[in-house]
Amino acid sequence: NANMYNSELKSRFIQETYSNKGRRNVAEVMFKTLEPLEQEYGSDICTIPEDKVRPILSKIIPLRVNSQRTRISILKDYVRWCMNNNVPNACDAILNLKDVGIARVKEQMVANPQHLKRYLDIIFDSDTEQTIDSTRRSFYWLAYSGVQMEDVVKIRCSDVDTDRMVITFDGNEYPYCREAAQDIKNCALLKEFRFIHPAANKPVWRERAKGDFLLRGYRDRDAVSLGALRTYVSKRTKHPRHPEKIREDDVGLNLDLSYFRVWLSGVFYRVYEAERYGVSPDFTQIAQDEVKRKGLDKGISKSELELKIKRIANQYLYDYERWKSVYS
Question: Could you give the dihedral angle defined by the CA atoms of residues 50, 254, 270 and 319, in that order, rounded to the nearest 10 degrees?
């Protein structure tokens, strides 16, 4: 608890307000996350005015609505408790906030394929360079096309139809956009990648690993390592190859793209495109897939399963509306 700002006050709030151990733990973790931001501001969160508290909360409020609600609920409980206990300068700023986390959407998601391509062009070599970076770029393009992360390293070159721009895997078809076409074509057809060494006068062609996996690099192995791929792209997002492509108006540009957030952006973009042609947003299928994939359908009745699917679909719908309010 020593890591909480005003730890004695917050510990009292937690003990007096929550009897559930899980809720207490969530509150404590959240307050510890908040501590450096309160330290920087020099004041407890319950005393910070509305114009200052919004940017602080945007840094700690999660992207998804189901995680957001818990944190916002605890913060509101804390502010009410502080006001009821006459904590000096406690104010109701947090109680009046609406649309908390909208900034998070803008920082962590992408609007459309062109937006994602611009990010990838900053982080990696371009698709026309035909380097191994096409495998890393395709990692994100597959996410945007709807492929689950655990499947991304299982896709083979033979699963790709470069003419129709469709990947067929495990009985599902994943159409990909024209912005992704060159990268995926590089991965599907090239037997060598261009290797650009800073000390060399010109690039050389280097043979790829044997096999048929779409995202294979240079090393011969039985399977593409998802862990190695994730580690590499994570490092590269922090040290982009082409920072000179960042524009002056890119204030607060966040290049730290996660697979899930890119996947979710792609889901929302496809729903939005369909909505423009008159199809109502419906996330039932996405919710059903999630329930099945995570094994959430085990040991519950049919009515409980239907309620669970409906609740998850509604969470996606709420998140979609927030994404749309930022990007449409």
Answer: -30
